[in-house]
Every structure is written in structure tokens, then in C-alpha cells.
Amino acid sequence: MASRQAAAQPDLDDAPDQESYSGRLLLRMPQTLHGELARAAGREGVSLNTYITAALSASVGWRSAERESGPSRLVRAALIADLVLVAVAAVAAIALLLVAVL
């Protein structure tokens, strides 16, 4: 039995290079966990694969530098709100100017 366990656990020194990974993984989990993950993915509006991939990548900090380098959604929303406010103010100023001139 010990030899079966040793065969089931690969030696980390013999792990393949990163270039040889296919990106595919067969993962066994309890049915209850599978169901909970599927429901969470449904609430997020993404596939189960996308949800699990995002959760795993977040847990190891994978590509976190890429996400941090770009503007966040909140910053983008604030910039758009500012642009809309400036446009509305410009239209109001032009309207007041036309009323004053005429």
C-alpha cells in the first residue's frame, strides 16, 4: 500500500517544466463543493471554469501586477462621471451665453 501512495504522489523534482503544462486539469471534489462552486459561478454570471480559474489565480497572486497596473473600475467610473459633468456644464454655459447675447 505504501508503494501505491508513493506512486500516486509525484516527486516535485521530477515535475515538468512550465512550458510542458497543457492547461488542462482533472480535479475530483465533493459533490457539495462542486454544487456550491457552480451556484457561485452562476451568481457571478460566468462559467464554472472561469470562476474556479479566477479563484485559484487570486489565491496565488497570479497576474496581480497586471490588474494593479491598470485603472480600476471605480477610477474609470469616476473619470466618465467627470467627463459627463464637464459636458453638461459646457452646454449650460453655452446656453446661458446665448440667452445673454440675444
Cα end-to-end separation: 97 Å
In the predicted model, the low-confidence regions spanning at least 5 consecutive residues are: 2-7
What value does the Rg take, in angstroms?
27 Å
Total helical elements? 5
Q: Mean pLDDT across all residues, rounded?
A: 80
User: How many E-type strands?
Assistant: 0
Overall body shape: elongated
Task: State the major sheet.
Answer: none
Portion of residues in beta strands equals under 5%
- Could you spell the SSE succession in H and E letters? HHHHH
The helix fraction, in percent, is: 55-70%
Structural class label: mainly alpha
Describe this structure in words.
The protein is mainly alpha-helical and 102 residues long. The protein is 68% helix and 0% strand. It contains 5 helices and no strands. It has helices spanning 2-8, 31-44, 48-60, 64-69, 73-101. Helix 2 crosses helix 3 (48-60). The chain starts with a helix and ends with a helix. Residues 2-7 have low confidence and may be disordered.
